[in-house]
Protein 1
Amino acid sequence: MAQSFAQPRRSVILTVLMAGLVAYSLFPLLWLLISATKTQDMLGDSFGLLPAGPFALFDNIAEVFTHQDGIFARWFGNTIIYVVAGAGGATLLATLGGYGLAKYRFRGRAAIFATVLGAVAVPGTALAVPTFLMFSEIGLTNTMWSVILPTLVSPFGMYLMWVFASEAIPTELLEAARVDGAGEWRTFFTISLRLLAPGVVTVGLFAIVATWNNYFLPLIMLSDRELYPLAIGLASWNADAVGIGAAPVFHLVITGAVITILPIVAVFLLLQRYWQSGLSAGGVKG
Amino acid sequence: MPGRRPPSRRVSAAGWSFIAPFLVTFAFVFLAPVVYSLYLSLFRDQLMGGNQFVGLTNYTAALTDPRFWEGAGRVFLFLVVQVPIMLAVALAAALAIDSGRLFGKRFTRIALFVPYAVPGVVAVLMWGFLYGERIGMVGWLNETLGSQVLAPLSKEWILVAIGNIVTWEFAGYNMLILYSALRTVPGELYEAAAIDGAGQWRVIGSVKLPALRGALVIATIFSIIGSFQLFNEPNILQDIAPTLISSSYTPNIYAYNLSFRGQQVNYAATVAIIMGVLTAVIAYVVQLRGTRRDD
C-alpha cells in the first residue's frame, strides 16, 4: 500500500463529485435492467427509471429464446465458441510468444520485437477489410474460422506478456533449472507458468471481452445468420425494428442485451482480484 | 561464469519454438492481408479490359476525394474534442480514487469500469434508445419540460451524441490503466514528499503525473486509433437515424460501404491503407513526443 504511512482524511466533496460520475456510468444500465421487466407497450408509456406495468421479465426472457425459432440460443452458443477458441488461442499464443521474447536471446529477436510493436499501432479495424478481401479469395469468409483466426493474434496482448514475463520471472531461476537438466518446455510448464498466472488472467480477460464484444469483424465476415455471435444478432434484431413495414421487437432487443451483458460483467467482477493485480504488476508501466 | 556464455543452440531453438506459433499466425492474419491489400490498391476493375494495373491512381483518387476528406475531417474533429475530455475525466477519476480520500473507493472503481465490459453494440443500442423520443429519456425530458431541450438525434448534435457514447464506454477503462500505473509508485516517494512538506497538489504535480506519463501515452495512442477507426457507434445509430449518417460518415464506414455495397474492392483497400498509415504516423508522433521528455 503506497500511502499506508499517513491515512488521508476522507473528503465528502470529492466523494459527491465522484458519485456523479458513478451515476453517469450506471444509469444507462439501470434503465436497461428496469426496461427488461416491461412489456413492449409499457416501454413507451412509462418513465424509464421506474418499474411500470406487469412484471414481464420472465415472459421477455422466454420470448427472447423462442423468437425466430430460438436463434438467440444459437447466437449465444456461437459466442461461446468464438470466445473459447479465439480468446483462448490468443491468450496461449501471446503467453508463449511474450515469454519467448522476454526470456530468450537469439538472432532476429530485435526484428520480431520491432515488427510486433509496430503492429500494435496498426488498427485492427483497418486490417479487417483487407483480411476480408483475402479470406474471400481463399474461401474462408462466412465460416467460423473467419472470425476465430484473426482473433488469435493480439500484438498488444503479446506486448503485455513480454513486459510481464520480463519482470515476473527471474532469469536465475531458468538458469538453475537448466543446470538441473530440465528441458525448456518442462521448465515453462512447471515453473514459469505459475509465475505468469496474473499476467495470463489479465491478457485472457481482455481477449475474452474483445471477442465477446466484437462487432466489426463478424459483421463483415459472416452473412449467414446461423453463425452470428450475440452482438451482431442483437444489432440485426434492432435493425428489423426500424424502417418501413417493420415489426419492432424493442423488448426483445433490451432483454437480449441484458442477457448478453451479464456473463461478461460477472466474469470481470469474479476475477477482478487477479486481473487488477496483473495490470498493476507490470503490465502498463510503459 | 555460466551467465556470460552465449546461449546454446538448444536454448536458442527453444526460444524460437515459443514464439513460432504466434509468428506463423501473425504472418497469416496480419502481414498477408496488408500485403494483399497493397496489391489490390494498385489495380482497378475497368468496364473495358477487366482488372488492370493502374499504379497509384487509386491513391490520387482517394486523396482528392471530397467524401474521404469529409469523413477524415470528422474523425479528426472527434479526436481533438472527445479524446481530451475522456482522458481528463479518466485522469481525474484515477487521481481521486488513488488519493484515498473517497468513501466507497472500491465500489467507485468497479462502477466506473463496468461500461467497458458492456459490449459496444449494447452500449450503442442502449444510448440509442435513451436518445430517442419514443421510449427514451430524452423524449420524457422534453415532454416534462414542455420544450425541445435536447435533440441528440439531429444533424447538429449527432456527433456529440456519439462522443458521449464513446466517453461512456472507455473513460473507466482508461481510468483503470492510469490507476494501475499509480499503484506502481513506490511508497518512499510519498514519504520523501511528505517530509519535504509537499501538499497534495504538489505531490500530484511532481510525483504522480510524471509516474503516469507512460500510461498516458499508451492511453492516448489507443484513443487516437479508436477515433480514427470510428465505426460501430455511427453504423448502429444509422439504423435509428438513417438520414443523419451518410455512407462516408467516417473513413472506416466509407471503406466498408465501398467494399460491401459498392463492390469497389480496390478503392476500399486504398482507403483502408491510407487510414492505417495516417493512424500509425500520428500514433508514432505521439509516442515520440510522449517519451522524449524522459531525458
Protein 2
Amino acid sequence: MSTTTAVVTPDVTTAAGSPSPQGPPRRRSHLRKRLELLLLLGPATVLFVAFVFFPLVAASYYSLFDWNGFGPLTRFVGFDNYAKALGDPLFQGAIGHNLFIVIASLVVQLPLSIALALLLNGKIRGRTGLRLLVFAPYVLSEAVTAVIWLSLLQPNGVVDGLLESVGLGGLVQLWLADQSVVMFTIFAVVTWKYIGFGIILFLAGLQGVPEELREAAQIDGATGWQTTRLIVLPLLGPTIRIWVFLSIIGSLQLFDLVWIMTLGGPAGASTTMASYLIDRGFRRYEFGFGSAVAIILFVICFVFALFYQRFALRRDTQGAITGRVE
Amino acid sequence: MTATTLAPAKSRAPFSAMTPVRYLFALLIVGVTVAPLLFVILGGFRTNAQINTDPAGLPSPWVFSNYANILASESFWRFLGNSALISISSTAIAVGLGSMAAFALSRYRFKGREALYSMFTIGLLFPLGVAILPVYLLLRQLHLLESWVGVALPQAAFALPVTIIILRPFMAAIPTEIEDAAVVDGATRLGFFWRILLPLSRPALVTVSVLAFITSWNGYLLPLLVFNDPANFTLPLGVATFQSQYAQDTASILAFTALSIVPALVFFIFAERHIVGGLTGSVKG
C-alpha cells in the first residue's frame, strides 16, 4: 500500500513521466492523493474563505444597499453609498488623517529608526538589553498603549508636569482635545509604539551588510558618513522597502489607538477610515454604507499594495507579500 | 575597561569619537521607550492624591492597595483567562490548519496550487476592518456572538496567510532525499508529514505560533464587537473599558494597566528571538 503511494511524490507527479503498467493502482493512488489534498487543504480553505474571502465579497454586495444589518436586502441604491461616503467631509477628513500618518511615518519614523539602528549597531555594552527594551512597546496591544498614553496626556498629567518642570510650560496643550493638535499627538503615540519595530528590522538588515565592504571603503579613505550613505543604505534597500510597505498598510488601517483615545474626535479631527467605518456600521447600524466605506478602504490598500509590489518590492521578494504583523 | 583597550584594534578613529554620543542616544531611546512604562508601573503604587499633586513623582509612601484590589478582583483574572483561551485556541487552529495547507502547497503538485496560494497571500491585504461587518453578521447567524469561538475562529482565519507564507518556503526547502528515504522505509506521505516534516519544521512553527499568538492576544476590534457581556471580555477590551469606567481613579487604572502589561512582556522576553526571526524571516521572503 505504502509503496503504491510512493508514485505520487511531488516531483514525480507528472504521472505520465513514470508510467506504471497497471492502471488500477495508479488510479487508486490518484484518488488517494486527492483525498490527502482535500484533508490537508480543506479545513484551512474553508476557514479562510468563510471569514476572509467571503466577507469581502459580501461587503461589496451589501455596499449597494441601504441596509441596517437586519432583515432582507431590499433597498438597492447602486453606488449611492460610495458617492455619499466620498462626498462626506468627515470621510474626506478621515482619508486625510490616514494620509497624514502615512507621510509623517515616512518622513519622521523612517529616518529616525534607521539612524537609531545605525547607532545601536555600533559597539555598545548592553546592546541586547537595549534592543529588548526598545522593542517592548511593540508587543503591547494598541489598546494598552492607548490607555497608557491617555493617563500620561491627561490635563495636568505627567506630560504637562514634565514640560512645566523643565520650563516649557508654554507648550502644554489639550493634547487630545484640541482639533489642531490631536493628530500630532496620535502620531507621536504611534511612533512610540512602532519605532522599536523599525529599529529591530533595520538592525537585522544591517546584519546583512558585510563588514568587509565597510572596511574596504574605510581603507579607501571614505568617511563614516560616506560609508553609510554609499554602502550601507543601498544595501539596506530591501529592508527599507519592506518597512515602507508595512508602515503604509498599517497607517491606512489605524483604528484601535484612535478609537480608545479619542473615538475619532474632537469633532472628527482624528477620525480615520477604519474608525469612520466602525462608527457608521456598528454605532449607527448603517451596514450598507459601512460596507461601501470598507470597500473603499480595501481598494486603497489593495491598489497601493499592487503598485508597490510591482514597482518596489518585486526585486526583493518575488511574489511574497509580507507580514501584517500587528 | 579591558573591552575599551581591545576595541580600537578593530574599529578605529571615526568610531571612538562617536562612542559617547552613541551611549547618550542609547540612553535617550531607552528613556523615551521605558519611562511611560515605568510611570504606569510606579503610578500603580501611588494614591490618586499623590498623582494629582505631583504627576511625575515617585510613590511616597508606597501604596499596595491598588494592585491588591486588582489582583483580588475576579474580573482581571477572568479577562486574563478569556484572553488566554482565545489566543491559545486561535493559535492552535491557525498553526494546525496552516501547516497542513503549507505542506500540501509546498510538496504536492496539483492543478490550481499557485492560485490557491495566491488566494491565501492576498489575504494579507485584507484588513480585518474591511471584513468586519460581514464577519459580524456571519457570527450572529452562527450564534457565535458572546462566544470565545466567535473571536478565535476569525482570528485564526486572518492568521492563516502569514502562517502559510512563512511555512511554505520552509517546508519546500526540506530536501526531497529525506522524503524519499522515509518512503523507502515505508512511511506514507501523511506519515512523513506527521513524523518527519513537522518535527523538522519546528523553528518555523514556533515563529508562526508566536506571531499568531501575539496578534490574537492584542486583538481589540473583534472582541469589541463580539462581546457585550463584560464576563466575556479579553484583556485589551477589559483595560479599555476599565479606563473609561474609572476615568477618575487614575491610580487603579495604572495598576490595572501595569498588570495587563506583565503577561505580554513575559511572553515577549521568552519569544523575542522568534518574533524578530519571524519578522526578518518574512522580510527575506
